[in-house]
Request: fold
Amino acid sequence: MGDSVQTAILGVSGYAGMELVRLLLQHPRLKDRPPVFLGRAEAGHDASLIALHPHLMDNNGSAGLKIEPFSWDLLKARGVDVLFLAIPHEQSREFAPIALKHGIRVIDLSGAWRLTKAANRAVYKFHDDGAPVAVEVQAKAVYGSAELHRDEIRTAELVANPGCYATSIILALKPLLAAGWVDLDRGIVSDAKSGVSGAGKAPTPKTHYMYAADNLSAYGVFAHRHTGELLEQLGLDRSQIIFTPHLLPIPRGILATSYVTFKKKHSADEVASLYRDFYADSPLVRLFARGHLPQIQYSVRTNYCDIGFELDSDGRRCVIVSCLDNLLKGAAGQAVENMNLMCGWGEAEGLA
Amino acid sequence: MGDSVQTAILGVSGYAGMELVRLLLQHPRLKDRPPVFLGRAEAGHDASLIALHPHLMDNNGSAGLKIEPFSWDLLKARGVDVLFLAIPHEQSREFAPIALKHGIRVIDLSGAWRLTKAANRAVYKFHDDGAPVAVEVQAKAVYGSAELHRDEIRTAELVANPGCYATSIILALKPLLAAGWVDLDRGIVSDAKSGVSGAGKAPTPKTHYMYAADNLSAYGVFAHRHTGELLEQLGLDRSQIIFTPHLLPIPRGILATSYVTFKKKHSADEVASLYRDFYADSPLVRLFARGHLPQIQYSVRTNYCDIGFELDSDGRRCVIVSCLDNLLKGAAGQAVENMNLMCGWGEAEGLA
Amino acid sequence: MGDSVQTAILGVSGYAGMELVRLLLQHPRLKDRPPVFLGRAEAGHDASLIALHPHLMDNNGSAGLKIEPFSWDLLKARGVDVLFLAIPHEQSREFAPIALKHGIRVIDLSGAWRLTKAANRAVYKFHDDGAPVAVEVQAKAVYGSAELHRDEIRTAELVANPGCYATSIILALKPLLAAGWVDLDRGIVSDAKSGVSGAGKAPTPKTHYMYAADNLSAYGVFAHRHTGELLEQLGLDRSQIIFTPHLLPIPRGILATSYVTFKKKHSADEVASLYRDFYADSPLVRLFARGHLPQIQYSVRTNYCDIGFELDSDGRRCVIVSCLDNLLKGAAGQAVENMNLMCGWGEAEGLA
Amino acid sequence: MGDSVQTAILGVSGYAGMELVRLLLQHPRLKDRPPVFLGRAEAGHDASLIALHPHLMDNNGSAGLKIEPFSWDLLKARGVDVLFLAIPHEQSREFAPIALKHGIRVIDLSGAWRLTKAANRAVYKFHDDGAPVAVEVQAKAVYGSAELHRDEIRTAELVANPGCYATSIILALKPLLAAGWVDLDRGIVSDAKSGVSGAGKAPTPKTHYMYAADNLSAYGVFAHRHTGELLEQLGLDRSQIIFTPHLLPIPRGILATSYVTFKKKHSADEVASLYRDFYADSPLVRLFARGHLPQIQYSVRTNYCDIGFELDSDGRRCVIVSCLDNLLKGAAGQAVENMNLMCGWGEAEGLA
Reply:
């Protein structure tokens, strides 16, 4: 693709949608071609973007930003090349196939197209699972983790942007698993903690301030939707990893603490070197020096995934700590990273 | 009344209701006569109190606590003497008159019966305002501020438990106004800040963690419902006081900063002495020593209203800081204080 | 011992000391014999307890509470039976032996006397480790976990009150380990998270609001002092458990998520039953019903340890979630529990 | 001045210093001339900027950023044109005069040079107040509020960057006072609330998480240092305004609620129009539309001051709510705004 493209976002009312709007508005390649902001006509969306997201307000014309009612005709009239879907996964199952048919490339932020195995998809209960169109579209979908699938993403028609928890855990574990170092018989534990924005913008009993503040709770034990992404991307079977999410009393950020045992003894230098090599070409992964561990506050409001580790004196037990902003590297930032690759631009343009 | 009474609470699902349950369960006079917990039959309430409020769980029988479907017959069968209403004000307009007709004394935690002037009630838009029954019941209502109306409360049939903001401001200002010290031409400002529990248990955009956390916002400027209580209890007209509430990013607690100018110069000792005399018989007001000001953390989870002040070197401008727990001295604690008075018990029994 | 005893607290300036003061002042057995509050003479402590801890202020005489300068003569003059030490562990190494020599029973809240194996104590670098007096005193020390050592505590001269993290993990795992169900070759992971009060009252870069708020960080990986307690009380060797603490952005509370694999398949009913039997006589452990997990907000400001679990569909992998208030069941509450046992009173008196 | 200048920052360890580093590193005019970061030689500063502020870490060379030991020779060798002082005010009294003597223009973020009247400066207890050099330097100082002193700042040798509270209140009140609308006999009240970063980076009892969290406290009543700025910039005498600061349990942000009474009745349109005209050329003030008030979360992490108001139905009493980020528009952002003016660049370059 050329120097610029025409982008559009369908679904700008949620937190990830808001961050996506912000990132695209300030992207250096899109300066002269602002994204088209779309709402579903029947959703009764507010026509002013700023009324919906006062956080995006500035004194430079943001007041004029409009959400337009979605239609395929509008997309064609605007010459949209890349469509971001920041809508519920059921809706994405419906919209993505049509976009592809219109020749529009899609970056989908939902869980609709991330999983290749039917068993892993079961938790989503897609009504169209197994239908010919869905099968065909799924076959085209590339899991949008630049660090793992950089080349496939470049030419993808449909990129399935990874889940926030999944990103934090996959990037922490992949180098060790790819190297075959991990003793899978001992099992892997990933204990993950996320801020409240991960629970979405809808007011519910669990997003009420009185529930979330001064609290910590585990949820979705053995049952979280992101588990399938871990299994497929890390090449594990269900018995080899436990992932437990927790709700943190903070607005945003994820910290995952992952526990592995190596098959044989390694030095900390060997571990550090393994990570450095694996992420040598990954501008949006930050590796922490020995003796330092990532913290949520360092990664929040950045597009990075931060990774650090501690190795036991036995040289076999290793704790990996990874952090990211669930709305950025865990959602909108990673989506823009995918756009950059799809357009032949630098992976971190507009993100570092 | 005798050594004990039979109490009942209608409306135990909200935060104030929960605190009321807790206070009555541990009240020394009610040890042998636990309150009756009532839900409106049509509300589909959960029959187990602990399922609704896990915070009340203990290992001493709390598991057996039940919410029973409300009926007047049940109240009579149980011999209820005092009924707490912790329900929306529209419902209280309906229930309180019937309770009185049944000879049951009522402590109402809503705004239904606090205001004697129709102009001040207008903001509530009571559908029955001015109707003969409502007029008659309102005439019986006593504003449940022990510090101001101790004697009337003792014999009241219906006590209108004060608003949380109103309590914090009335107790801060009443001694100065009663003494005639305040220059009302200069106007009074009460800038008040409340934790999120004051906004209620319903999940709404404003009680969402992402809205309330790391934030502060003013609301209801010139328009908050508690304004009428200030005017009536402090003997002011609308032009003489401005009260602005703010939503604090904390679970509970109110701090009100009130600004007055004295007609003539006073010493700090005179001010301290005025407060000490006014609250000499008030066990649930704590006066802070010179050089110390109340803070929300000192009053939260207590039944006290804390008051302190700073006097300008001019001897005329005075800043009064008052704090309380909006669910306790601002709601359930004050309700129990009123029960204590109505039953002839010590004002602070079960509360200090 | 008789109906009452004379207690004293040395070290009332910290958070645990403050909670201990509060619990003893309201303890039903101590109503007529208030504790003696002691500060080290050279510490320049404030003579007024309320000046130090405004949270303890009430309108019932708390203003008169004094901190007295410590001396052994004073302890004898007051006839102190039970001395609580809420002081740093180095100081406790010095004070506890002398108290025992004076025939005063000691409940020590520090880490000074919790560990029987020199290897586990090494992390504390006690200057007197191995000295005859220290060896003799250590031999008398009972680990103050009522649920594990109820009988020894009753007659103990010196009770070593457990660490906060250790309590949350030991109570979560002990029933499973005691039953021999856990496959230790797979290793146990305990991922624990604590509020900031666990880091102490001293202002440091890590207790600064700007560090702790909106953040989560892991620390002390493979190196936390409480590890030795886990090993000794659970009968594990170092290679069999990893415990990772994290600093939560909340004032108080601990949640530990523990991961075990069973040697063979069990049903959830069997697991529940095992826990019920183990804690049948433990009034300060609350077991959560199937489908419910403890949360920090349920346990904070209580003296309970809450425990719940989820079992994988494979019947072998089990996640146990335990919560407690680090200042109560994790410190002062457990200390009072130990006092109750030492005095022949009900284990939960003044605590439930 | 030309297209670029050489900047230097003395004092990069605090929060404002950190934000200043961030803003200058990304300033479009300074791309080819990164700032010189300076620490006082005797302060034992860390030589790596990232070690001090992990928040500034990126994957683009930030690792190489160094703090150099300050010396005037170094400043000359680097050809520094503009020196930012983010150091305590006592130190700034010492450094600023020397810088001016060397022909280096200074933007001082402390309170050292903000006040022209000795009475207002008294609170700072400058040891050199009244000394000839100090008098001479003070005479050159321009109060760095672009909205009030745009033209003087352009040519200033020394700009005294305003206080954070002062900025929020001055910008809220100046249009009304400049127009002569305010009845000063009634007095003005500004009730202001700030996040914890305003209290500085040093760990103290008041910046401890346990003090600040879940709390609100008033402080410095009638005595805050920023009062002098209000009086001088707003042309008031001490009796005409009360300003009370409060410590909010949030990391950053200020909200000030200001109360004025107009001499005569005005319509809300007239008020809105007055503000619009006053700030017509001010790109970093955002005026909120009728019915909307600023909130801290909208202004945090922006360089704006947000202003909104509510007018009573009497047309005379007006509540003005203003918000800003205390580290940006209240410190580092405003400092960069001043640099922009001093260099002849757009006021909001690198800031909007």
In short: The mean pLDDT of chain C is 95. Chain C is about 30% helix and 20% strand. The CA atoms of residues 149 and 317 of chain C lie 28 Å apart.
